């Protein structure tokens, strides 16, 4: 601060210089980032089916690695070799830097190749799911509204002249007494008629809990590609359900000829050998529902992913387990992960779900040959669900 | 500006005038590093907003944080010139930089390319660019960022595609064929015309429909100008943006095309002015010379060679030699007449190239880098290669079809190979959004076969 009267420094402006009012570079960088987010958003279905998805369920965000946008200009094709002028020692033909098998990444090069900086956009899963629902024009799920699904609760409602002493409403009682005394000639303080008791009424609220069981066929025929399809489908099915219900429990079941429950982190790594007996998994799922998730309090969902094969003598058992299970469920969805391998068009599982659907049960089936199909399956599933009563 | 610096700079200016430097006055300003960074990114203190500058800004910040980029000064030619000195510079550095800026100022007033832009655009690029930025901000307020950005995407992508032989303000093509008869009549024709009447052939009757001139009448390399004036449905504010980008590109061209000469000339003069400024304290002179040798050197102190030629060092060495051999008058003639092409081809001789250890190299895709030759012509062309055609492929507008389709043709023969198809396609999409009709581009693919891109 300059003292009053002292000469001002000659070249320093008194007010903030114009260039410090805002940063033009930062402004344009923010605009770039906004464009990145828009680009991410418009390509979300493709991006999320890509391999670079990292989920961090604990804080419910998805990290999407992106490169900076390039503002393109006309450029010549890369020549096989770059030439240029340099300065220093060395005879014609002398090698200044040897080639390496890894191509341009010479030892000590430090990976600063053409200065590319990539960064990670962190997106909230909820935000993504909102975008997706908009993008895919998906309806919201509807909780089942049948009586059995209602979650009873007691709420205060109205008054009565009789009741338990603990529910005496003093304020209301005094008011009654005041009214009575106003019209009586020689009133007494209180009469039994003045007493008012609060009443409780049994009121039902729709259950907003959901339980989702994911079932994965872990037999040898489920390869990496198939598992990935299943995982992507499961992930987004779960997100869609989470969108609707405040409290969602998940159960992970993998099966070969037997079925086991797994924690989420191990679920997709599970690999077993041997045959496929789907009924084992459905039976386990049924037990889980019976023991933990009362159908009157939980909206139940089951998703099953397999390659379609099932032991031929298990068909009847699987069908009856599934039919029994569907009473506890809002919906059961089956995805057949064809992946890259060839499958006959009508597998046992597809047929089985189709039969149940014909009988009017809330089930659906879809085939996933590639990541693109995941969106169709998700869409089909949520459409089915929204059409409920 | 600090007092000793002010005092030294007065002394240096006096010395410069005495030694014959001829320049428009220079307004010096100390600026914080943050502004210097932005100037490095935008080329100007205030420039139109565009997201691509944001990307460059981050790259620049990264480079600076790794210590790869230190900016001492930036000078904007004009009348007056404007020079920004980084306020973190030491007194010795700023003394050096003041002298350096005077060298630039002299160059900018006297070099023909700089003088031509100065004459055509007036001497205040900073205000011109600020006015462009303001106009674009108004366009954003009026039309929304998305629409303005679409225009800037196209215009800035074509930034280097201007025809530098044309004036900044060039008229539209004539709408009918020029009546050439008057101008082309030579003496013989005139005498022939005066011969008795009956010998003259009947003049060809004018065609019933006056012949339309093809647009463009010749391959048009001034793409920014062409799109601004001939795009079928361009609105006025969009045209203004194209022309603003073109004016700025014309401003940047002399800086680009004379970099070796200009930086060399400024370095020559800062060295000479400091050497002859006997009023500077010895310690300050030594620190300043240390700063000089950190900048004007062929490669980093711990290296044996560099895969680039430092324009400061090359230009400095060339000017020292030119002044030594031909005197200052010869040097001033070269300042006036040449750009880097003439400078390097005419004045980089075998002896100097040998002394500077210049070579050409080849980098293979596996990372092997090999010295190719020390042949002088090859060295000259390798130095100049990135400067041809403003550093961009040669692409001309060759036809505007009846249906409004724009045909672009890549002069692949002179560029030696085709275009990178991914980028070319993206640029075509940018153009398409402002041209609003199909756009086609003819080039060759990686096997040299004709290849057409279209949107």
Summed over residues and divided by their number, the pLDDT of chain A gives a mean of 76
Q: Which range best describes the helical content of chain A: under 10%, 10-25%, 25-40%, 40-55%, 55-70% or over 70%?
A: 25-40%
- Helix count of chain B, per DSSP? 19
> Whole-Å distance between the termini of chain B?
55 Å
Rg over alpha carbons of chain A = 34 Å
Main β-sheet of chain B: number of strands, strand sense, barrel status? 4 strands, mixed
Mean pLDDT, all residues of chain B: 91
Query: From N to C, what is the helix and strand string of chain B?
Result: HEHHEEHHHHHHHHHHEHHHEEHEEHHEE
Name the beta content range of chain A: 15-25%
CATH architecture classification name of the largest domain in chain A: 3-Layer(aba) Sandwich
| Structural class category of chain B | alpha/beta
Q: State the order of secondary-structure elements of chain A, H for helix, E for strand.
A: HHEEEEEHEHEEHEEHHEHEHEH
The global form of chain B is globular
List the helices and strands and how they pair.
The complex is a heterodimer of chains A (389) and B (455).
Chain A lengths: L23 H19 L1 H6 L4 E3 L4 E7 L14 E7 L6 E3 L20 E7 H11 L14 E11 L9 H14 L13 E10 L2 E9 L6 H21 L2 E9 L3 E4 L1 H4 L10 H15 L5 E9 L8 H11 L5 E7 L10 H11 L4 E6 L2 H16 L3
Parallel strand pairs in A: 8-9, 8-11, 11-12, 12-13
Antiparallel strand pairs in A: 1-2, 2-5, 6-7, 9-10
Helix pairs in contact in A: 3-5, 5-10, 7-8, 8-9
Chain B lengths: L2 H16 L7 E6 L1 H10 L8 H15 L7 E4 L4 E6 L4 H20 L1 H10 L3 H19 L1 H13 L23 H4 L2 H7 L29 H8 L5 H22 L1 H18 L5 H14 L9 E2 L4 H27 L2 H8 L2 H6 L2 E6 L5 E5 L2 H9 L10 E6 L5 E5 L1 H4 L5 H15 L3 E6 L5 E5 L1
Parallel strand pairs in B: 1-3, 8-9
Antiparallel strand pairs in B: 2-3, 5-6, 7-8, 9-10
Helix pairs in contact in B: 1-4, 2-3, 4-5, 4-12, 4-13, 5-11, 6-7, 6-11, 7-11, 7-19, 10-11, 12-13, 12-14, 15-17
């Amino acid at each position: 601060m300059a003292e009053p009267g002292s000469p001002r420094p000659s070249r320093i402006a008194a007010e903030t210089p114009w260039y410090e009012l805002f940063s033009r570079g930062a402004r344009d960088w923010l605009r770039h980032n906004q464009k990145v987010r828009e680009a991410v958003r418009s390509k979300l279905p493709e991006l999320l089916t890509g391999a670079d998805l990292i989920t961090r369920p604990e804080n419910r965000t998805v990290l999407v690695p992106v490169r900076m946008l390039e503002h393109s200009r006309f450029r010549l094709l890369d020549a096989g070799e770059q030439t240029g002028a340099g300065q220093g020692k060395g005879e014609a033909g002398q090698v200044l830097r040897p080639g390496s098998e890894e191509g341009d990444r010479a030892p000590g090069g430090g990976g600063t190749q053409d200065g590319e900086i990539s960064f990670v956009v962190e997106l909230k899963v909820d935000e993504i799911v909102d975008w997706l629902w908009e993008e895919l024009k998906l309806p919201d799920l509807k909780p089942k509204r049948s009586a059995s699904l209602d979650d009873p609760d007691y709420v205060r409602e109205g008054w009565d002249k009789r009741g338990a002493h603990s529910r005496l409403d003093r304020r209301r009682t005094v008011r009654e007494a005041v009214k009575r005394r106003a019209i009586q000639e020689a009133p007494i303080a209180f009469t039994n008629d003045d007493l008012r008791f609060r009443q409780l009424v049994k009121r039902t609220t729709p259950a907003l809990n959901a339980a989702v069981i994911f079932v994965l066929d872990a037999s040898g025929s489920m390869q990496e590609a198939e598992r990935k399809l299943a995982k992507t489908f499961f992930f987004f099915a779960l997100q869609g359900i989470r969108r609707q219900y405040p409290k969602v429990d998940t159960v992970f079941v993998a099966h070969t000829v037997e079925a086991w429950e797994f924690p989420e982190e191990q679920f997709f790594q599970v690999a077993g050998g041997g045959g496929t007996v789907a009924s084992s998994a459905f039976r386990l799922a049924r037990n889980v529902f019976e023991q933990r998730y009362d159908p009157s309090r939980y909206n139940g969902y089951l998703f099953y992913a397999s390659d379609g094969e099932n032991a031929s003598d298990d068909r009847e058992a699987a069908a009856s387990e599934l039919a029994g299970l569907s009473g506890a469920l809002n919906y059961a969805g089956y995805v057949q992960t064809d992946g890259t391998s060839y499958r006959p068009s009508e597998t046992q599982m597809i047929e089985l779900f189709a039969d149940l659907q014909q009988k009017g049960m809330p089930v659906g089936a879809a085939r996933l040959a590639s990541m693109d199909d995941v969106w169709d399956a998700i869409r089909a599933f949520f459409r089915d669900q929204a059409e409920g009563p | 500006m600090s007092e000793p610096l002010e005092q030294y700079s007065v002394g240096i200016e006096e010395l410069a005038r005495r030694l014959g430097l001829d320049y428009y006055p220079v307004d010096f300003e100390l600026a914080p590093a943050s502004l210097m960074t932005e100037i490095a990114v935008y080329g100007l203190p205030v420039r139109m907003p565009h997201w691509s500058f944001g990307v460059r800004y981050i790259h620049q910040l990264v480079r600076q944080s790794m210590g790869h980029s230190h900016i001492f000064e930036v000078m904007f030619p004009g009348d007056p010139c404007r020079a920004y000195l980084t306020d973190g510079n030491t007194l010795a550095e700023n003394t050096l930089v003041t002298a350096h800026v005077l060298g630039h100022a002299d160059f900018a007033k006297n070099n023909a390319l700089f003088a031509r832009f100065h004459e055509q655009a007036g001497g205040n690029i900073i205000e011109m660019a600020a006015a462009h930025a303001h106009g674009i901000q108004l366009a954003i307020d009026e039309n929304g960022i998305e629409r303005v950005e679409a225009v800037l995407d196209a215009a800035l992508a074509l930034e280097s595609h201007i025809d530098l032989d044309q004036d900044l303000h060039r008229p539209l093509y004539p709408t009918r064929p020029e009546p050439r008869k008057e101008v082309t009549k030579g003496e013989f024709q005139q005498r022939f015309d005066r011969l008795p009447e009956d010998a003259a052939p009947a003049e060809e009757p004018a065609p019933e429909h006056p012949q339309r001139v093809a647009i463009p009448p010749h391959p048009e390399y001034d793409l920014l100008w062409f799109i601004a004036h001939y795009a079928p449905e361009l609105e006025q504010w969009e045209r203004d943006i194209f022309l603003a980008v073109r004016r700025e590109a014309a401003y940047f061209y002399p800086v680009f095309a004379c970099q070796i000469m200009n930086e060399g000339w400024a370095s020559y003069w800062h060295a000479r002015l400091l050497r002859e400024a006997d009023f500077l304290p010895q310690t300050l002179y030594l620190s300043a010379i240390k700063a000089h040798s950190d900048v004007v050197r062929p490669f980093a102190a711990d290296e044996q060679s560099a895969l680039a030629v430092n324009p400061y060092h090359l230009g400095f060495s060339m000017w020292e030699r030119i002044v030594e051999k031909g005197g200052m008058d010869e040097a001033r003639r070269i300042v006036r007449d040449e750009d880097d092409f003439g400078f390097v081809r005419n004045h980089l001789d075998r002896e100097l190239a040998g002394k500077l250890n210049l070579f050409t190299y080849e980098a293979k895709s596996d990372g092997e880098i090999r010295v190719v030759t020390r042949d002088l012509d090859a060295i000259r062309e390798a130095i100049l290669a990135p400067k041809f055609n403003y550093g961009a492929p040669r692409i001309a507008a060759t036809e505007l079809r009846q249906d409004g389709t724009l045909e672009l043709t890549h002069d692949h023969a002179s560029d030696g190979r085709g275009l990178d198809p991914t980028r070319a396609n993206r640029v075509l999409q940018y153009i398409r959004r402002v041209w609003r009709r199909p756009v086609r581009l003819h080039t060759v693919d990686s096997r040299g076969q004709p290849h057409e891109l279209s949107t």
